[in-house]
Amino acid sequence: MGSSPGDARKGNVVGVKVHNHGDRNVTIHWHGVKQPCNQWSDGPEYITQCPIKPGGSFTYHVILSEEEGTLWWHAHTGFDHATLHGAIVIHPRRGASFPFSFQEKKTKVEEMAPIILA
Ligand SMILES: [Cu+2]
């Protein structure tokens, strides 16, 4: 894998071609992306797809129907889950309002709730 898929937008279908330059089988899972009726791009090896063999490639079509924010992708083969990984940033649809105000509110220390560390 040469680079991260990078930025996308809610509602996009992102095509990601993975070419396996390694010496072991690999698949890629898009962690937190629901992909309804699109299980062949979900990544679990031998469950939703055959692994990509060394020297082989596979193009994932990742449907970002509901997701917004920063999610991540990772290898989903054998014990390789934490070895190959990266971020995918999903922006809201164009023109969508943000769910919070950007207006900064000054809060006095006394008004702040205590944070309990256990
Ligand atoms: Cu995952």
Automatic annotation (TrEMBL):
Pfam families hit by this protein: Cu-oxidase_3
MF annotations from Gene Ontology: copper ion binding; oxidoreductase activity
Domain of life, per lineage: Eukaryota
Domain Plastocyanin-like: 8-94
Gene3D superfamilies named in the record: Cupredoxins - blue copper proteins (2.60.40.420)
Family that this chain belongs to: Belongs to the multicopper oxidase family.
Name of the molecule in the record: Plastocyanin-like domain-containing protein
Gene: gb22453
